[in-house]
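We were asked to recover a plausible sequence for a given structure. The inputs and outputs are reproduced exactly as logged, with field labels preserved.

PROBLEM: sequence recovery
POSITIONS: 354
GIVEN STRUCTURE:
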């Protein structure tokens, strides 16, 4: 177990069984929402200490109908409308309505262990962290997702991100979803209301900068379903890159350089390509760098396909460049948009101290 960071806030002890508020942001999730609600309602935690808010961004499918039906059968479930559409706005709505000493985020595209809430509370109590969560464990429903799950288990796919490693235990930069002590939003503020992606990492960065801690535990178990097509994955990673760039501009730093690696790689290849147009001496360098990258992708794809399914090899060879290029280009787009929109930025508000 890693040591707690210096300057950690001193918090009052958390009750053994505090009231918990589960917040589920969603939009057009008719295929997942009932399973997630069932997982929330069947938590091994005192029922009278749980409240559940489903914050919907104006779904056009049967999501709201399904939630309304479940809410009619169980008073703990409340359906809220999110006019801001994005997940950060949904979380802020739910947090402001909540009464819990612990706020637990549950995304719709995920499966949760029946002790997810209890384990989260136990880890918060044991570690003194302001946010505790588990690793992002991917789970698949089709062949594309199977290959993507393999890519997301690779350092080439996730760059050694701690919150992708289900074997890790200790203080980290970010976790999957998370269970927050209420004080986190009083001290560090709510989610960035204008953030479309990366809102969780940006909030965790503010928590750490305010002297709090974020803890990753093997005991907190949840699985999520990744994107189901190459186009959807490219859009997601482009948005991830934009979100990281926005965080860099707003916070003026990132907690590590790891999220910038795709951006730096894309930039380096672009500069080499431009320079090679006028300088013949640069062309061997560009060719060598391209061959080295291709060899790395092929070698890792072979390793993963042998461990999982040989049929996944061609798709794995496409997945890694898609994730890297989309994230790097998204980072560039985020920097350009952020510079343009700097005057319109606003800080996330704080939750009033009770």
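RECOVERED SEQUENCE:
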């Amino acid at each position: 177990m890693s040591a707690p960071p210096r300057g950690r806030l001193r918090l009052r002890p958390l009750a053994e069984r505090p009231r918990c508020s589960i917040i589920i942001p969603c939009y057009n999730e008719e295929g997942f929402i009932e399973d997630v609600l069932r997982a929330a309602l069947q938590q091994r935690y005192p029922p009278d200490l749980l409240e559940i808010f489903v914050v919907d961004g104006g779904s056009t499918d049967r999501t709201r109908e399904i939630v309304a039906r479940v809410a009619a059968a169980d008073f703990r479930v409340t359906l809220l409308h999110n006019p801001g559409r994005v997940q950060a706005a949904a979380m802020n709505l739910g947090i402001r309505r909540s009464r819990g000493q612990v706020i637990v985020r549950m995304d719709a595209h995920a499966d949760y262990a029946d002790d997810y809430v209890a384990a989260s509370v136990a880890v918060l109590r044991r570690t003194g962290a302001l946010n505790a969560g588990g690793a992002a464990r991917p789970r698949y429903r089709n062949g594309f997702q199977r290959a993507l799950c393999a890519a997301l288990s690779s350092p080439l796919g996730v760059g050694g991100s701690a919150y992708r490693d289900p074997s890790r235990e200790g203080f980290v930069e970010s976790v999957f979803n998370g269970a927050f002590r209420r004080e986190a939003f009083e001290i560090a503020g709510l989610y960035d209301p204008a953030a479309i992606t990366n809102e969780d990492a940006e909030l965790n960065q503010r928590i750490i900068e305010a002297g709090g801690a974020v803890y990753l535990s093997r005991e907190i178990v949840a699985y999520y379903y990744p994107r189901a097509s190459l186009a959807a994955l490219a859009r997601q990673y482009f948005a991830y890159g934009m979100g990281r760039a926005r965080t860099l501009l707003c916070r003026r730093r990132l907690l590590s350089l790891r999220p910038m690696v795709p951006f730096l790689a894309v930039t380096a290849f672009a500069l080499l390509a431009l320079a090679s147009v006028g300088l013949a001496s640069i062309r061997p360098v560009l060719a060598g760098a391209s061959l080295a990258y291709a060899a790395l992708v092929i070698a890792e794809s072979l390793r993963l396909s042998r461990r999982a399914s040989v049929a996944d090899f061609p798709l794995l060879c496409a997945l890694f460049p898609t994730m890297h290029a989309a994230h790097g280009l998204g980072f560039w787009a985020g920097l350009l948009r952020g510079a343009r929109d700097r005057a319109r930025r606003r800080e996330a508000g704080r939750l009033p101290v009770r």
